[in-house]
Amino acid sequence: MPIPPYKAPRRTSYDIVIVGGAAVGSSTAYWMSQAIGPETSILVVERDSTFEFSSTALSTSAIRQQYSNPINVKISQFGIEIINSFPERMAKFFPGEPAPDLGFKEHGYLYCTSPEGVDSARARVELQRSLGAHTVWLTPDQIRTQFPYVNVEDLGGASWGAREEGWFDSMGLLNGFRRAARGSGVEYIDNCVTGLTLAGGKVASATLSTGQTVSCGTLVNAAGPRAQQVAQMAGLSIPVEPRKRYSFVFSSATPIPGKMPNVIDLSGTFVRPEGELFLTGNTPQMEIAKDYTDFEIDHAEFDDYIWPSLYHRIPDFDALKVQQAWTGHYEYNVLDHNGIVGYHPRVTNFMFANGFSGHGLQQSPAVGRAVSELILQGAFQTLDLSPFCYERVERNEPFLEEAVI
């Protein structure tokens, strides 16, 4: 796993050190840099600025409002707002060239529901609609009319995000946030935090792979699947571990007509169009923690589980050919699949922004803004993310999200 040569920081002391420069870390750096002046120093330490193996680069880059918790719906609504306004927001950081358009494909999610799950699913639809989402409930006959290629024989219905759901350019979002942060004075370095020194109940400094030690006023853990590694450096622990997710791009001998949504099968397999091809994945059968460097793909997952699910739900997928495949990592929160956002109660300048369990990219705009508010103003100012607090981990009180893929 080659990485760029590590570089030393320009200073020996920073007000804020962010560990991890992918979507969550760069969103945090962006929001902070827009809220403060150049007199505040921010350092982002990223172990691999190619982001080749980052969860951001290897994600399926989708966003939805179909959640069971109101706060997750609101987080996604803000994410949609940022995606739609991104070119205008980034324009001043791209002088003389086009600002990044994230190419939002507003196709929606189609969540298939079993007959036994109809009441719960319809209740989630009503919750989402009460918050301003455009989710609609479709009966089996309505599914057949809207999406005639979907097999509805074993379905009780489906919820469909008719607007403001879909997929977008993940690296466009990351590169925009990163460029804007750097253009506003944030320092990024290719390096790796190897240790933290504590004093008086706070992180006093971070040691880097190149041997330098930098002191910091606040440390933000935005290390994605490596979040537990960083927490351990401060003598802390969070229930976050790397879980593998396989993505397969395939061609189909039979085309799918119309504007196909991201179809979520009862089995957990999803499929959506990618131009003339299709992208699919699932929750692997061997759902266990993996090594941080394990990106080996299991093609049997497609042959034995994904393809049968695809063919059952969409019979036109009877002749498929895999064209590309890759493995990414979820930063999986085994407690409740929701993010951990906020300060540690005893190491009082250690900020968590971790454990989003596959939702980190779509939640990064709101999470970065929230972390910035906590650091700079001492409290959430826009969306109240206090249910994501670290303290629930110590209390072993899950903040559950039912709609997990």
UniProtKB/TrEMBL annotation:
Gene3D superfamilies: D-Amino Acid Oxidase, subunit A, domain 2, FAD/NAD(P)-binding domain. Pfam families: DAO. One of its GO terms (biological process) is mitochondrial respiratory chain complex I assembly. Transmembrane segments: none annotated. InterPro entries: FAD-dep_OxRdtase (IPR006076), FAD/NAD-bd_sf (IPR036188). Residues 15-374 form the FAD dependent oxidoreductase domain. Keywords: Oxidoreductase. One of its GO terms (cellular component) is cytoplasm. One of its GO terms (molecular function) is oxidoreductase activity. This is FAD-binding oxidoreductase. It comes from Lichenifustis flavocetrariae. The lineage of its organism: Bacteria, Pseudomonadati, Pseudomonadota, Alphaproteobacteria, Hyphomicrobiales.
